Amino acid sequence: MSVVILRNQVVHYEVLGRGKPVLFLHGWVGSWRYWVPAMQTASMAFRTYALDLWGFGDTAKIAANYSVKAQVELVQEFLNAMGVGRVAFVGHGLGAWVALQFARQAPQQVDRLLLIGLPWKPTNINGRLGSASVVDLAAWLLDGDDAASQATRLEARKADLQAIRTSVEELRSISLDQTLFLIRMPYLLVYGFNDPLVVLPEGDELAHLPENAHWIILEASAHFPMLEENAKFNRLLMDFLNLNSGESPRELQLKEEWKRRVR
Question: Which structural domains are found in the chain, ordered by start?
Answer without folding.
Answer: 2-258 (3.40.50.1820)
